[in-house]
Specification:
heterodimer; A: mainly alpha; 10 helices; 79% helix; B: mainly alpha; 8 helices; 0% strand; Gate_dom (chain A); membrane (chain A); transmembrane (chain A)
């Protein structure tokens, strides 16, 4: 689907640009966009280096495992296929907490680290696992308690009640997250049937079954 | 509640920065060495994201410059008018999943033009605050670990954006209306 959206955006842009006489602007925008991509990635270097270092200390101290062990039934419900006490659950937990508190620059490194941990459990390194899709769904809809940036902007424009949108935002974000979780569950239930028999059907040790499924998907 | 959460947000990071190494030192972890060891991976991860982010940003930036969005919005305007929804917020529904910076700029523009306490200002604030930029999150998270087949992840993200967008509008109309 990403392939199609990407192609769609580019083709539609050029067609509309021709139609609107904006071809030069669109060409310029293409290179401007490339520059933004690099700038944003470079901006990520500092926060990734810092937080990954910090989280390594936590991991070496056994803090993340502990956190994963403390996890409530909610996270086990959301990530049934991740083994208990796996560090991935600890990172998922920190990622979710950072999102809830609106700590964007901490949430991204934790999320990436959680993805890297989930990737270790992935038999086919190029295809997303259901757990990865769930983590992504939680992050795209990201529950935030206080949208600090927006409150600041509303203050700048002299709002009488800058924080009055906290309640509406919380309700909207909860509904969006619930929708994401439901959709994710639905897709999970649809994906599971063809996957499970394929692994069980090989009859051999589960390890070889999984790698077999992986290579058949790749070819 | 707002004050408590804000306080928590302000304290969360410094508390973590102090607590994690302190706890680790207590458990006899060589904290600084651990930090450097883990931090090493950060650079490579960020560099690995570049091709993904450049590809996505090029497409989104072209799309915004082409004027295609304005035409989509124009086409949907009658439906919004018929529903009694201020159509000024409509571009946000398209922009929000695509670009965080772009939709924030658009929200700021709406707040500036119509005032933060207008219905448009409130709806725009709520939409902007209630979801994250799906395409960006997908690009960065999956780019960092080299996932090529994203399966249904994007569909779920976009679906939840749509639900969030509609929910934000109706909640604001109901609460502030």
């Amino acid at each position: 689907m990403v392939n199609w959206i990407w192609l769609f955006l580019i083709v539609v842009s050029v067609v509309f640009a021709a139609f609107n006489g904006r071809m030069e602007l669109v060409t310029e925008a293409a290179f401007e966009g490339a520059k933004t991509g690099v700038t944003v990635s470079f901006g990520l270097i500092s926060i990734l280096v810092f937080w990954l270092g910090m989280m390594r200390i936590g991991e070496d101290a056994g803090l993340l495992r502990k956190l994963a062990g403390l996890l409530g039934p909610l996270v086990r419900f959301l990530f049934p296929d991740v083994p208990r006490n796996h560090p991935a659950l600890g990172y998922i937990m920190t990622n979710m907490s950072a999102n809830i508190l609106g700590l964007g620059n901490a949430a991204t490194p934790m999320g990436i680290k959680a993805m890297q941990e989930l990737q270790k459990l992935n038999p086919d390194k190029e295809t997303a696992t259901p757990a990865m899709c769930t983590l992504l769904a939680l992050n795209t809809s990201s529950i935030t308690l206080v949208p600090t940036t927006l409150i600041a902007i509303r203050m700048n424009f002299e709002s009488a009640h800058p924080a009055e949108i906290v309640g509406t935002t919380l309700i909207a974000t909860s509904i969006a997250t619930a929708a994401a979780i439901l959709a994710d569950r639905w897709y999970r239930s649809r994906v599971r049937p063809p996957l499970v028999p394929a692994i069980k059907g090989t009859g051999g040790p589960s390890g070889s079954g999984e790698s077999g499924a992986g290579t058949s998907l790749l070819s | 509640m707002y004050e408590v959460v804000t306080l928590l947000s302000v304290w969360a990071i410094p508390a973590m920065i102090v607590f994690i190494p302190l706890y680790a030192a207590f458990r006899k972890v060589p904290v600084y060495e651990s930090f450097v060891e883990g931090a090493k991976g950060g650079f490579d991860t960020a560099i690995q994201i570049i091709p993904h982010l450049v590809g996505m940003m090029v497409a989104i930036s072209m799309f915004r410059a082409s004027g295609a969005m304005e035409m989509i919005v124009q086409a949907m305007r009658p439906f919004f008018d018929w529903m009694g929804i201020p159509s000024e917020v409509l571009p946000l529904g398209v922009l929000r999943p695509l670009t965080g910076a772009g939709s924030l700029a658009f929200t700021t523009e709406l707040i500036k033009t119509y005032g933060p306490d207008s219905m448009i200002g409130r709806i725009a604030s709520t939409i902007q605050g209630s979801t994250d930029t799906t395409l960006y999150v997908l690009t960065v998270y999956f780019g960092a670990i080299g996932i090529r087949r994203t399966r249904y992840a994007l569909k779920v993200g976009l679906f939840s954006d749509l639900v969030g967008f509609v929910a934000a509008i109706f909640i604001c109309l109901y609460i502030f209306g």
